[in-house]
Structure formats: C-alpha cells, structure tokens
Amino acid sequence: MSTALIIVDIQNDYFPNGNMELVNTDKAASNAAKVLEWFRQNQKDNIFHIQHIASDPSLGFFLPDTEGANINEAVLPLENESVITKHFPNSFLNTELESKLKEKGITNVIVVGMMTHMCIDATVRAAVDLGYDTTLIEDACATRSLAYDGKEVPAEQVHYAFVGALDGMYATIDSTENFLATRN
C-alpha cells in the first residue's frame, strides 16, 4: 500500500499566546515532527500539510495573512512538500487533497494534527468514507477543554472521547513511539 502523511492545522494560533490556545500543543507538535521526519526519510513525496485559513473573520483565529495562521515551526513544510489550504474542518472538503492522493496512488493515510474534536475527527471520518485505510497517531494531536450547558469537559477527556469514538470503525489508533518502532 502507498502511504501518505496528512498534517492537519498545526498552526501558531493553537500554541501558547495564540488566538485559540489548545492543551499539550508542544508535545503533540513534537510527536508530529517525529512522524514527519520519518516520512521525510522514507516517503518524502507523500507529505501533505493542511493549513486552515478562516474565510469568516468572526472565527477569530487563522485569519488570512496573520502569524497565527502560519504553520508552526515544529512541522514547517519544506519547499517540495504540498501545502493545501482549507476553509472547513474536513481537510477534503473543497480542497485538492483527494485528487493529490489519487494522483500518487495513495491508499493508506496517517493523520496527525489539531484539534482532535474538530478537524482531526472530520478529516479521519472523511478519509475513511473516501476509502482510505486510516491511522491516527493520537499523541501527535491536541485539543482543548469544552463546555456545554454549564458542564465542563477537560481537554484530556475530550481528546480520548474522540479518539475512542474513531478507534476501530474509522481508524487504527497508534502512538508515535509504536508507529516509529514498527517501521524502523
């Protein structure tokens, strides 16, 4: 199987002092960087960076032409790596991601990035719906705490609830350490 890495929205607004700060971004980005390095050494033509640019300024983050919308230095794309701009949580919706994967004969995708409960969830589900064998490197993802109707859900619980929901039916869930150990 031909495998590609999809790095979703590891952008500055998610890091400390950004406009939508998440929990554990440094750890997630560091793990994503390790997976990215493996791909650069082994599958260098199959790396896809996804960059969310807000089409609606009321979103308040990932605004066009801002430092916050830039891809974080931990996973900064090289000149030969694809950068795909998106405007929705699903990395496939109204983007060229699917056509680029098909051009390369990709059948298997590895997903890392941010936010677990939003863009990662939407992208993983879409990948599976489009027929890709999908692996999520869960410790290379980050999210934030959520609240609804006066009930607070800590980021760690949000992360594991969404990872747990994807496990099995939608994706193989893996860790950075295990992913690297089984490929070296």
Short summary:
Helix content is 31%, strand content 23%. It is α/β, with parallel strands linked by helices. Helix 3 packs parallel to helix 4.
Q: How would you explain this protein's 3D organization?
A:
The protein is an alpha/beta fold. Helices cover 31% and strands 23% of the residues. The chain is built from 5 helices and 8 strands; from the N terminus they run E-H-E-E-H-E-H-E-E-E-H-E-H. The strands form 2 sheets. It has a 6-stranded parallel sheet. It has a two-stranded antiparallel sheet with strand order 6-7. Helix 1 links the parallel strand 1 (3-8) and strand 2. The chain is globular and about 45 Å long. The two termini are 17 Å apart. The mean pLDDT is 96.
Tally of DSSP helical segments = 5
Shape: globular
Cα-atom radius of gyration: 15 Å
Question: Which residues sit in consecutive blocks of at least 5 with pLDDT less than 50?
Answer: none
Order of helices and strands: EHEEHEHEEEHEH
The rounded distance between the terminal residues' Cα atoms is: 17 Å
Largest sheet: 6 strands, parallel
DSSP strand content? 15-25%
Helix content bin:
25-40%
